Every structure is written in C-alpha cells, then in structure tokens.
C-alpha cells in the first residue's frame, strides 16, 4: 500500500460512533436500486451532503465534494425525507461500519484503481 497507517484513525471513529453520540447509520435495501445519497444531519441544524463515501478509498484516493448548510428548516426537511427512506433500509451496526471503513482490502482496491488510472493517463 502507501505506508499510510489506516488503523491510526480507528480510535477517533470509534469515539464518534460510540453510543453516547447517538449516531445511526442505515443502508438502503431495495433490490436493483442504487441509493447514492450521502447525507448527514447534525443536531437538527446542520445538513451535510456530497459525493464523499465513508471508505479509505474516498478518504485518501478520490476527489470528493461535500457541502454543509447551517439551517434548521432545511435540516428538518431532510430529516423528513430520510425518515421515509429509512422505511426501506437496514440498520448498520457501528462495528459493521468500522469493519468496512478500516478494511485493508477496501483500501488496497482504492490504491489499485489509482495506479490503473495513472497508467492510463501517464
């Protein structure tokens, strides 16, 4: 890989995902349907969305975009939409989330993709 210690950030991620922070993660679960929204609402006031995936590949290897809006009315509207989406989703445990994000395989696949792109344009 690249020498980056991908496990060094796991304690921070574990703290964020701890039960005291009331973080909930859901995965859309309808066959043959892609749900590409990446949305986070914090304290019913701040809404963040964009292309960022919660993976090592996105964090270290991809160009990503995120937008944050501090507006309680927008946050409430987004929450109402997400509540409808949750009806078609499965809950992802914090451990499942951590296992995916800190997967060496996931990170390695990202590195291979970057190397291939470099060969194609180089």
How would you concisely characterize the structure shown here?
This protein is α+β, with helices and mostly antiparallel strands.
Summarize this structure as a short list of keywords or feature phrases.
122 residues; alpha+beta; 3-stranded antiparallel beta sheet; two-stranded antiparallel sheet; 5 helices; 45% helix; globular
How would you portray this structure in words?
The protein has 122 residues and is an alpha+beta fold. It contains 5 helices and 5 strands, in the order H-E-E-E-H-E-H-E-H-H. It has helices spanning 10-17, 56-61, 72-86, 94-101, 104-121; strands at residues 25-28, 39-42, 46-50, 66-70, 89-92. Strands 2-3-4 form a 3-stranded antiparallel sheet, with helices on one face. Strands 1-5 form a two-stranded antiparallel sheet. The radius of gyration is 16 Å and the shape is globular. The protein starts with 9 loop residues before the first helix and ends with a helix.
């Amino acid at each position: 890989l690249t020498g980056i210690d991908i496990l060094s950030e796991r304690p921070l991620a574990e703290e964020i995902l701890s039960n005291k922070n009331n973080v909930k993660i859901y995965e859309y679960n309808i066959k043959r349907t892609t749900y590409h929204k990446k949305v986070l609402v914090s304290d019913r006031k701040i809404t963040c969305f964009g292309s960022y995936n919660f993976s090592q590949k996105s964090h270290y290897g991809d160009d990503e975009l995120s937008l944050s809006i501090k507006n309680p009315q927008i946050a409430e509207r987004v929450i109402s939409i997400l509540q409808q989406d949750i009806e078609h989703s499965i809950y992802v445990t914090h451990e499942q989330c951590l296992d995916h994000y800190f997967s060496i395989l996931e990170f390695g696949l990202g590195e291979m993709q970057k190397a291939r792109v470099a060969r194609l344009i180089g």
